[in-house]
Specification:
293 residues; mainly alpha; 64% helix
């Protein structure tokens, strides 16, 4: 198989009907590393909305159990991607996600904004750092995939196309981005988590590199000092260089799912596997409780 053969396969599929297959090929064959980084950044952006950042800080899930929260979110979303919306595992994962959200007073606007980040931020990341950009054909499939996810999560007034998702995200950030002590604490915990994935001597460099990838609107919202222009050029240049190097590699022959990422630390800790029903948070008003054998 040659480098662009899988794209040819994607272009032969119908983005409105085969969106799951197309998105699976994008996320697990074409851009697994990039999609992981982009979705991390997508979720991270949401902390800059005070109503979201404050709630996450109050639950303490992302400040006291940061790694587990990261793992469980990845594994639940991964189950939908791997098995599909109509599968038993896919339905279980979405049910678990909905149970968590219903335990808190979250507005539809905030939920829709988070959904928008899943569509817009990966596209922008690939524009800047990917080994190639998404085609309009692929982008239509991404929109269809996340519209389906949003509908199954009960989100209302979901945009119909990428331009609508992008407009919704930009308008929401322009109106709502701002400083909140809770959001800052969640941001700090997340940056510490990312730094912990590297050998201790490299942790400060990893944190600095993460900050260098953030845009000014995020830095202002969290009241972080702006990285130097040199640091930004070096970090962003290195990530772009990685994308160019990947373009020269042969295409991936096997899919790579989130559970295979080295950043997932809890998954290897389940020697007998894990149950989707046990993942995530269980707020006081949540009717579901993990069952133990």
């Amino acid at each position: 198989m040659r480098r662009y053969d899988r794209l040819k396969e994607i272009l032969e599929l119908d983005p409105e009907q085969d969106y799951l297959t197309i998105y699976r090929l994008i996320a697990t064959y074409e851009f697994p590393w990039d999609i992981t980084r982009a979705l991390e950044l997508a979720l991270y952006r949401t902390y800059a909305v005070p109503s979201i950042g404050r709630l996450l800080a109050e639950t303490a899930e992302l400040t006291e159990r940061t790694q587990k929260r990261y793992d469980d979110t990845s594994l639940l979303l991964d189950a939908v991607l791997e098995h599909g919306f109509d599968s038993a595992d896919g339905r279980t994962a979405i049910r678990r996600i909905n149970q968590m959200h219903r335990g808190y007073d979250i507005t539809n606007d905030d939920m829709r904004y988070v959904l928008c980040t899943f569509v817009v931020i990966p596209k922008r990341w690939l524009d800047d750092y990917g080994w190639r950009r998404l085609t309009d054909h692929e982008l239509r499939a991404v929109v269809a995939y996340y519209r389906t996810l949003g509908q199954q999560m009960g989100i209302q007034q979901i945009p119909h196309d990428y331009a609508g998702f992008e407009r919704c995200l930009d308008d929401y950030e322009d109106t709502h981005f701002g400083y909140d002590a809770g959001g800052r604490s969640v941001s700090d915990a997340t940056l510490d988590l990312m730094a912990s994935w590297y050998p201790r001597p490299l942790a400060p460099l990893a944190r600095g590199a993460s900050l260098a990838l953030l845009d000014d609107s995020l830095l202002r919202a969290f009241r972080y000092a702006r990285p130097s222009p040199v640091a930004r050029r070096l970090v962003r240049g290195a990530v772009r260089l990685r994308g160019r190097a990947v373009r020269l590699l042969p295409p991936r022959e096997k899919p790579h799912y989130a559970r295979q990422n080295p950043q997932i630390k809890s998954y290897p800790g389940y020697p007998d596997g894990y149950r989707l029903t046990d993942l995530g948070t269980f707020p006081p008003t949540c009717p579901a409780r993990p069952t133990r054998n």
